[in-house]
Amino acid sequence: MNLKEMRLDKKDLRMIKETERILKGQSCPFCSSEKVAQIRWGLPMFSQGMEQLLAQGKVVLGGCVLDEADDQDMQCLDCEKTFEFHKPKQSR
Ligand SMILES: [Zn+2]
User: Do 46 and 55 form a contact (C-beta atoms < 8 A)?
Assistant: First the structure.
């Protein structure tokens, strides 16, 4: 399936943009890889946008955790360690 042929609605596009914004400037504190994904806890809303993020490795599913679920957990795709989101250093 060609990802470009997927039809994305506004909500999907916004979610993709938001995820890319979160991933921007993130790198693994263990191996310095920039191939990191955002961990989505619980059951995500499956949509074309979510499928695309999963296919591109921008989002990984963290499973159903009711306690201490944090939207801003990240996972390195190279060493598979998880780490907390850290604010990229940039001026406002
Ligand atoms: Zn790593």
Answer: no
Q: How many domains does the chain have?
A: 1
82 Cα–ligand 1 center, Å? 8
If you measure from the C-alpha of residue 9 to the centroid of ligand 1, how many angstroms do you get, rounded to a whole number?
33
CA of 39 from ligand 1 middle (Å) equals 14
21 three-class SS? helix
Q: Which residue has the higher pLDDT, 22 or 69?
A: 22
31 Cα to the center of ligand 1, angstroms:
4
pLDDT tens column, 44-79? 778 999 999 999 999 999 877 666 655 578 999 999
Provide the token pair at 4. 């470009």
Domain around 71: 29-87
The answer to whether position 19 is within a domain reads no
pTM of the predicted structure, to 2 decimals: 0.77
